[in-house]
């Protein structure tokens, strides 16, 4: 809780720690309300710190029981302790500090530090949770070797897990308790500490690393859920192998454990040797998980595993460098999924997510650089910008340096910085050195916020046989950055000839272009020679640069690219660009402009037998309402956006009825469910076809959808058909929703889907429905997954109903945020960040949103987390 505005922390103020910790010995005796923690820290003055500085250790709500220096109880006056800080002025430059604290894990509803979830003890320490367990220099540049003894009641917590390798364990005679001692030989920052104690079932696995080290794998789940951990185990083993082949990185301990818990603020956490996961990203069975769930599990298992090198062996010097581990690790997990599945389809899905989340963030009041320079609450910087744009920056680096140069830079980074707490400068220096390239200009991507806009105009000179591209780049102002400098933008492109083949790219001075142009200035022209016929420019292929591309391509050009570009991403992008043009005009004019070209392009894609079904499903799904709103940019009326999208859906459904019917029949996937990408693609295209076929809402169409719902033998089809029905206020919808509830009432992760779907229905009754759903016993305000599924889905996945013209959606969210804030500030501030788009709304809604945000900002006793979001959103 704060009494004043949260204080800013600045990158420019970074100083090395005054004291270091060589070893940490923890003795933790677990108890539901009185857990005892004895910490023995071997402290040593840092020669690089400030001479004579006292020892200042972080705490957060700690209860100090006892304190000893070099084995002698500390007398009052020798130290100064408060719940949030411990200050000592020792005479020696090296000493052993012993501190005992007393914790109440059951009362910990913030889910930060040591807490309980379904009876299990678990921890979350990133970024600043370790200080809720014991006093410590809780910053990521203090690396220590940890030994952890955990003790607990044997019946309540038969499983005791820690970081590193198990040294010994056994019963404590005559007490009903037992213990385990874990030792992690790799020095690590406190945010990677973890322990787990509970009644959990182990799903075992095994892996032998490339150099022959055997590793015991374990996935720990709630008793009875073992049969849902198989896919996660498989994904883990594939991730371990992939990191060896793709990056030369081997695992470095004898055990690797994953624990699935049901109360977790984020997706998962990469604690050394002991990953803790939101169970939503571990548990899957054909009956309970969709294809999207399987893909997410694969990606997040890989992500946390890959952190072992990018995050753990090499960690971050300070939290400003968060993207050093997160952006890079997202890039690595994206590459892994691309290799395991379809590369183009993965790229399309990633860019869709980037635009839906990061571009939106970048265009509003919460915009910040990939590496921020100031924060008031670091928990609010686990954002799409740090993660997703952070990954795009790494991808752009690779586009500039090429495969071999990129790998050489990564190899140097691992070799040079293993064991370090590093910075973005350290990272970039490795690539500069390995390739001999100056990356000073490129580095601006980390510091400058906002999405650059790239205007590209093409002109063909038939007589000269030249094609000229005029490129103008600009980045709109963002909070704290009124003016912007030009960036180094890797623009992948092709000039497509009339027969659909790429023409050779040769600049006027004779230099050949290997598919990527480097745009470096505000205004630049590129002239290609030897161009015999007028080509169509295919720009930013594969989304090589994270920019808003504005081209002068005609409708005919886009139709041509959608059919012929050899870059699958740009085939997708061409048809999406056609749709965006229509939707923007449709929303502005209240009626859909002529759209025969889009229908024609869509028909061709649908009927192209050579195309991957998963690709077609992506290409034929219209841009979402949030995405259209961002494209419009200002004065957005969500109802007009919704109406335009609805009209275009109707037009597509009408024009392509036969095609969708044929596709629907052809995409039947008989046989038992398999989660692989090819089968998932067929299911996706089949459900999309059903969705279009159901658009007319006739009794026949609804009955067909309901029949498919009933016949489904896996969650992908069952939930897919339920989502189709959810769009139509009808008896069929009611029947299917009721049936789904009865079937899965006892399965919280599946109920989340049901909650989330209803929260996203674009009808005036939805807000009342959400209020009613909150009263059901399956809902709980203390479980983050439930809250996000219901309240989060309304706030971020239902633009018309969150932005109701009467402001009731905003008032509702504010009530939930204020109620939650006392309990779980991180969850509350995440929900509140749904207001990040308020400034793009038309004036009436914007005024209501502003009033709602003010109410939050003015509420007494706000957490730093919520206060920070409210003030920045208003800022
Ligand atoms: N490092 C984790 C991941 O991305 C995220 C943990 C963030 N947790 C938090 N409470 N902010 O894999
Ligand atoms: Zn991560």
Write the layout of secondary structure elements.
Layout: E1 9-10, E2 19-29, E3 35-45, E4 55-58, E5 63-69, E6 72-73, E7 79-82, E8 85-88, E9 94-103, E10 113-117, E11 120-124, E12 144-153, E13 159-162, E14 165-172, E15 177-188, E16 195-198, E17 200-208, E18 214-222, H1 230-247, E19 255-261, E20 268-269, E21 274-278, H2 291-306, E22 315-316, H3 322-340, H4 343-362, E23 374-375, H5 384-417, E24 421-422, H6 424-435, H7 444-447, E25 453-461, E26 466-474, E27 489-496, E28 502-503, E29 516-519, E30 523-528, E31 536-539, E32 548-551, H8 555-564, H9 568-589, H10 596-607, H11 613-620, H12 625-632, H13 638-655, H14 657-666, H15 677-694, H16 699-711, H17 715-726, H18 731-744, H19 748-759, H20 766-773, H21 784-797, H22 799-802, H23 808-821, H24 825-832, H25 843-858, H26 864-874
Helix pairs in contact: 1-2, 2-3, 3-4, 3-5, 4-5, 5-6, 8-9, 8-10, 9-11, 9-13, 11-15, 14-15, 15-16, 15-17, 16-17, 16-18, 18-19, 19-21, 23-24, 23-25, 24-26, 25-26
Zinc ion (ZN) binds next to helix 3.
């Amino acid at each position: 809780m704060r009494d004043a505005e949260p204080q800013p922390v600045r990158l420019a103020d970074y100083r090395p720690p005054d004291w270091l910790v060589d070893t940490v010995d923890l003795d933790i005796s677990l108890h539901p309300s009185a857990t005892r923690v004895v910490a023995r820290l071997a402290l040593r003055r840092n020669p690089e710190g400030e001479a004579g500085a006292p020892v200042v250790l972080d705490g957060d709500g700690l209860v100090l029981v006892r304190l000893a220096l070099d084995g002698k109880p500390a007398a009052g006056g020798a130290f100064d302790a408060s719940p949030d800080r411990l200050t000592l002025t020792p005479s020696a430059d090296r000493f052993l500090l012993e501190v005992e604290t007393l914790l109440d894990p059951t009362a910990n509803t913030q889910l930060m530090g040591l807490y309980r979830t379904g009876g299990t003890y678990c921890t979350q320490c990133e970024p600043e949770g370790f200080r809720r367990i014991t006093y410590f220099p809780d910053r990521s540049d203090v690396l220590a070797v940890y030994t952890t003894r955990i003790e607990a009641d044997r019946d309540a917590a038969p499983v005791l897990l820690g970081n590193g390798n198990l040294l010994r364990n056994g019963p404590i005679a005559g007490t009903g308790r037992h213990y385990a001692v874990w030792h992690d030989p790799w020095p690590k920052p406190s945010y990677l500490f973890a322990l787990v104690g509970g009644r959990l079932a182990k799903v075992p696995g095994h892996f032998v690393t490339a150099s022959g080290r055997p590793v015991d794998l374990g996935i720990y789940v709630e008793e009875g859920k073992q049969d849902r951990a198989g896919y996660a185990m498989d994904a883990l083993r594939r991730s371990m192998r992939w990191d060896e082949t793709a990056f030369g990185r081997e695992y470095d301990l004898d055990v690797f454990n994953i624990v699935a818990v049901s109360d977790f603020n984020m997706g998962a956490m990469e604690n050394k040797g002991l990953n803790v996961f939101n169970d939503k990203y571990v548990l899957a069975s054909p009956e309970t998980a969709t294809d999207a769930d399987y893909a997410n599990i694969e990606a997040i298992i890989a992500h946390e595993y890959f952190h072992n090198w990018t995050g753990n062996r090499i960690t971050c010097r300070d939290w400003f460098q968060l993207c050093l581990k997160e952006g890079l690790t997202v890039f690595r997990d994206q590459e892994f999924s691309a290799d395991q599945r379809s590369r183009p389809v993965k790229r399309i899905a990633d860019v869709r997510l980037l635009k839906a989340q990061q571009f939106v963030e970048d265009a509003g009041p919460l915009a910040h650089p990939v590496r921020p320079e100031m924060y008031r609450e670091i928990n609010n910087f686990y954002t799409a910008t740090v993660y997703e744009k952070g990954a795009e920056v790494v991808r752009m680096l690779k586009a500039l340096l090429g495969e071999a140069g990129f790998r050489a830079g990564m190899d140097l980074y691992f070799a040079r910085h293993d064991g370090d707490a590093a910075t973005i400068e350290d990272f970039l220096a490795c690539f500069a050195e390995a390739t001999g390239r100056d990356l000073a200009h490129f580095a601006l991507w980390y510091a400058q916020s906002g999405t650059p806009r790239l205007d590209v105009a093409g002109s063909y000179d038939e007589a000269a046989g030249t094609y000229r591209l005029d490129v103008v780049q600009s980045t709109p102002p963002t909070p704290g950055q009124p003016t912007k400098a030009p960036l180094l933008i890797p623009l992948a492109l092709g000039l497509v000839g009339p027969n659909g083949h790429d023409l050779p790219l040769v600049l006027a001075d004779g230099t050949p272009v290997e598919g990527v142009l480097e745009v470096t200035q505000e205004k630049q022209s590129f002239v290609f020679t030897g161009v015999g016929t007028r080509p169509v420019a295919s720009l930013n292929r594969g989304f090589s640069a994270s920019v808003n591309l504005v081209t002068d391509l005609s409708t005919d050009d886009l139709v041509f690219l959608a059919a012929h570009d050899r870059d699958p991403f740009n085939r997708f992008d061409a048809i999406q660009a056609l749709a965006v043009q229509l939707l923007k005009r449709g929303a502005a004019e209240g009626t859909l402009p002529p759209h025969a070209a889009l229908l024609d392009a869509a028909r061709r894609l649908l009927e192209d037998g050579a195309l991957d079904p998963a690709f077609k499903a992506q290409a034929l799904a219209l841009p979402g309402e949030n995405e259209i709103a961002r494209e419009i940019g200002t004065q957005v009326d969500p109802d007009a956006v919704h109406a335009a999208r609805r009209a275009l859906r109707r037009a597509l459904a009408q024009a392509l009825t036969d095609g969708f019917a044929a596709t629907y029949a052809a995409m039947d996937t008989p046989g038992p469910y398999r989660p692989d990408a090819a089968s998932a693609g067929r299911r996706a295209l089949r459900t999309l076809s059903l969705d279009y076929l159901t658009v007319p809402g006739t009794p026949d169409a609804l009955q067909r959808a309901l029949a498919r719902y009933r016949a489904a033998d896996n969650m992908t089809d069952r939930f897919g058909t339920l989502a189709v029905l959810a769009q139509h206020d009808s008896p069929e919808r009611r029947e299917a929703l009721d049936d789904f509830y009865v079937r899965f009432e006892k399965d919280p992760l599946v109920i989340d889907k049901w909650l989330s779907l209803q929260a996203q229905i674009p009808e005036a009754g939805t807000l009342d429905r959400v209020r009613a759903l909150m009263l059901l016993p399956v809902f709980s305000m203390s479980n983050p997954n439930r809250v996000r599924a219901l309240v989060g889905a309304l706030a971020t996945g239902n633009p018309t109903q969150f932005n109701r013209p009467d402001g009731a959606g905003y008032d509702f969210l504010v009530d939930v945020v204020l109620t939650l804030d006392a309990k779980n500030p991180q969850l509350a501030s995440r929900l509140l960040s749904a207001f990040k788009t308020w400034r793009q709304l038309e004036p009436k809604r914007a005024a209501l949103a502003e009033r709602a945000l003010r109410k939050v900002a003015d509420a007494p006793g706000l957490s730093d987390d919520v206060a920070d979001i409210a003030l920045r959103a208003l800022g």
